[in-house]
Design brief:
single chain; 15 helices; mainly alpha; 76% helix
Length: 298
């Protein structure tokens, strides 16, 4: 291990606010999940519980672990942070169907206030716009390109406050991006399901362009990394090339996986033979099963 990385790791301290906030969210989710499992055993599965907890753990690794301490030394670690915040933690959190367990885990008085706020027409309009696939795709793409622009990227390296803003932006746009793909309750499909692979393909384009630029550029794009001495035998330019390749490969395979799953579901015989007349009945059953615990919480 190089001296620079060892020094960064030795200076790392457990970020109590972040750690406590994530632990509190995990406890609220667990409380609500246990309540739902007792009243409605088949509402939120154990696999969904595991997905949500894995998402919170991934989030802590990105912003609370020593990974956050060494991102100033190697661009590769910085890229790992971005990938965890945008492409790993958000889909895991959404796969946990977080809204119902969190509602049931919070005090009822607080949930009633939240319910009144979210039933306001203006709030519903904003939520409708924010969760539209076009907005989700554009927001995530803009966040990726904007925060990797050298001036903004270097601002995040120099200022801890801007670094936190950057992390928050990546996480929020990551949640928005994966919302139309995962479609957790209470989301409703805006587009036909066959558009999901196309949506994921379009999302790879700005990431591919950025990662290709980093991988094949013949100079160090971000000046603070050019001033860092060789770390672990890797030159600043070599570190940049590896970070670009990591982003390229990771995004391609992570986005490819759900696209393949959705395509297989769409082409499955049972799906092809499910008539439109049968689907309202299935939707009614699902809505009835989910609305009962939600109405109880609100």
């Amino acid at each position: 291990m190089s001296a620079a990385i060892k020094t960064a790791i030795d200076s790392w301290q457990l970020p109590l606010p972040v750690t406590l906030a994530l632990l509190l969210m995990a406890c609220v989710y667990l409380r609500g999940w246990l309540h739902l499992r007792k009243a409605f055993p088949h509402t939120i599965s154990v696999a969904q519980f595991a997905a949500f907890m894995s998402g919170l753990s991934t989030l802590w690794i990105a912003i609370g672990s020593p990974v956050n301490a060494v991102d100033d030394e190697l661009l590769t670690f910085h890229m790992v942070q971005h990938l965890l915040l945008m492409t790993v933690a958000p889909p895991l959190i959404l796969l946990g169907a977080p809204i119902m367990p969190l509602l049931h885990g919070l005090p009822r008085r607080f949930v009633r206030v939240v319910g009144r706020v979210f039933h306001h027409p203006a709030v519903q309009w904003v939520a409708g716009v924010a969760t539209h696939p076009v907005f989700c795709l554009l927001a995530a793409s803009f966040a990726v390109i904007a925060w990797h622009y050298p001036a903004l990227f270097e601002l995040g390296l120099k200022s801890s406050w801007w670094h936190e803003v950057e992390h928050t932006c990546f996480l929020m746009t990551g949640l928005l991006f994966w919302w139309p793909v995962v479609q957790p309750w209470p989301s409703a499909a805006r587009w036909p399901r066959w558009s999901t692979p196309l949506y994921l393909f379009l999302a790879t384009l700005p990431c591919d362009a950025l990662s290709a630029f980093l991988a094949f550029c013949d100079r160090v794009v971000y000046r603070p990394y050019a001033a860092v001495p060789h770390v672990a035998g890797i030159s600043p330019l070599g570190d940049q090339e590896f970070a670009g390749a990591l982003m390229w490969v990771s995004v391609t395979f992570i986005y490819l996986a759900p696209a393949v799953v959705v395509t297989i579901q769409l082409l499955s015989p049972s799906r092809l033979h499910l008539s439109e007349q049968d689907r309202p009945e299935l939707r009614g059953r699902a809505t009835g099963r989910l609305s009962a615990p939600t109405a109880e919480a609100l």
